[in-house]
Write a structure and sequence with these properties.
Strand content: under 5%
Shape: elongated
Distance between the termini: 10 Å
Number of strands: 4
Strand order of the largest sheet: 1-2
Mean pLDDT: 86
Length: about 170
């Protein structure tokens, strides 16, 4: 079942909004992109679609997760810096060795990185699908500087209806 959300006169979109797939209960199915996803729903969908490289992801799903991931990384870096500063040793030559708490911060950062690397790559692939690019375009990110800039532009692009070719609707 496909229907469009009610028109909100306060929001003016610069592009034609995609049809929003909804279940009879009113929820957006997991296989469909959730346009205008709130932050909590974007985080839930990120982990529910942990290693799903098929389908599409809306801009809101992508950018909310990017914000969450950035904030968590900053907080973990602050924890690592504060824990490393406590008990740090400075030698006469001017070199500083961080305290033992920095080790805990590094472990937390590594665990966070390992926990989100696969779903982050899957989210980028689904976002590329939403703008009608092959998921293999993620490899352009391997090109120094220009590749990252190109991926940033791709993530900003609006959704395209042609991207529906990547959808695989789940049985209801």
């Amino acid at each position: 079942m496909s229907r469009q959300p009610p028109f909100n006169k306060e929001i003016h979109l610069s592009y034609a909004q995609q049809d929003q797939h909804v279940t009879p209960a009113g929820a957006v199915p997991l296989w469909a992109p959730y346009y205008g996803a709130p932050i909590g729903e974007a985080a839930k969908r990120f982990f529910k679609k942990y290693a799903t490289f098929t389908g599409r992801a809306s801009r809101s799903e992508y950018w909310w997760w990017t914000l969450i991931s950035g904030v968590v990384s900053i907080v973990l870096n602050i924890i690592m810096s504060a824990a490393g500063a406590a008990g740090a040793t400075t030698y006469d030559a001017g070199t500083t060795v961080p305290g033992p708490g920095a080790f805990i911060g590094v472990i937390l950062l590594v665990l966070w990185g390992l926990a989100v690397i696969v779903p982050s790559l899957a989210l980028v692939v689904r976002r590329l699908h939403d703008v009608n690019f092959s998921g293999w375009m993620i490899l352009i990110g391997l090109v120094p500087f220009i590749g990252s800039l190109a991926l940033l532009v791709f993530m900003i692009l609006p959704s395209k209806t042609e991207g529906q070719r990547f959808d695989i609707p789940a049985a209801a």
